[in-house]
Amino acid sequence: MELQNYSGFEDQQQINNYAIFSRLMRYFIKRLGILFIVLIAVSMLTFSVTRIAGTPLYAAIGVYSTKEMIEERKEQMGLNKPLWEQYTNYLTGLADGNLGSSRRTFAPVKDEIGDRLPATAELVIFAVGLSILWAVPLGALAAFKPHGWADRLGSILSQFGVSVPSFWLGLIFIYILYYILGAFPAPFGRLGGADPPSFVTGLYSIDALINGNLTLFLETLRYIAMPAITLSFTSSPPIFSVTRSAVSNVLGSKFVEAARSYGIPSRVIKFRHIAPNAAPPIINIVAMTFGYLIGGAVLVEVVFSWPGIGTYAVQAMDFSDYDPVLGVVLLSATIYVVIYFLVDLLQVLLDPRLRE
Known about the structure:
Blueprint: H1 2-53, H2 57-61, H3 67-77, H4 83-95, H5 109-144, H6 149-163, H7 166-180, H8 204-210, H9 214-235, H10 237-251, H11 254-261, H12 266-296, H13 298-303, H14 309-318, H15 322-350
Helix pairs in contact: 1-15, 5-6, 5-9, 5-10, 5-12, 5-15, 6-10, 7-9, 8-9, 10-12, 11-12, 12-15, 14-15
C-alpha cells in the first residue's frame, strides 16, 4: 500500500513538473515572438523615416549631379525599386549580418559600430554602477525611515536628475570641474591624445588592468568620470524610486510583521527577508536603465566627445548617411529588447507566482 502511495506521489510530481515546464515554454515562445515583432516594427519604422526624410542618393553623389548620373546611381543603389522591395532587401542583408556601408567613410557599418560599441558600453557600465552605489542604498534607507534625511536627499537628487537635461548638466560639469577647478582632464574622448592600452576587451579601464598598467587605468578613470557622473545623475531617479517603493512594499507585508513578532533580529530580517523579496523590481529597473542608456547616451557622448555609437550616429546624420543611423537604432533596440526579455524570463524563473 505504501509503495503504491509513493508511486502515485512520484507520478503527480512528474505531472506538476511537466505542467510547469509547459507553462515556461509557452511563456518563452510568446515573449520571443513579441521580441521579434518589436524588432521588425523598429526596423520598418526607422527604414521608412530615413527614406521619407531624404533619399540617401544625394548623400552619395551630391545635389548638383546630372539626371543621367542620378538615374545610374539609383539603379546601382537599388533606389529605383518600390520601398517595400528596398526594405525586403535590407532585411535580407541583415540576416547575413550586413548593415550596409557608410556613404561618408565607405567602411562597413558593422565594423564601425563594432569599433565604437565598447566605448559606449564602458561609459554605460560606469554610469549604471555609480547609480547603483547611491540610488539603491539611499532608496532602501528612505523606505526604512520615510521623511528622514535619506528620503529628502534622494527626492531632491531625483527631482534634479529628472528636471535637468543631460547635455546641460554635462556642460556645467565641464565648466566647473575642468575649466575652473582643473580636477579632471579636457573632455576630448576616452584618453585625449594618449595611446590606448593593448586591445583585449575594448574597455580601456579593463584592458589597462589586464595589461598591468595602473597609471593608464587611473587615467581612464579620470576621463570617464565626468560623463559617467552626468549619466548617473540623469538616469538614477527611477532606480531610487523603484528601490524605495519595493522595500516599502516588503516592509508592509505580513511575513515581515510575523518575523518581527517572533523576535527575529532586525539585521536578519533586512538581509534574509526584505532584500531577496525587494530585489526583483530593482534588478528589473537597473537592467532597463542599462539597456536604455546604450542608445540613450547620445547627448552626453557628443558633449564629452566620447567616441561611442551615439556620436557615430550624430556624425552620420550630419552627412545624411543613413545606414549607420539605421544600424545604431537597430542595435540599441535589439540590446534593450533582449535585456528586457532576459530580465522578464529571470523573474519568472525566480518567482513561482508568475508561472501560474
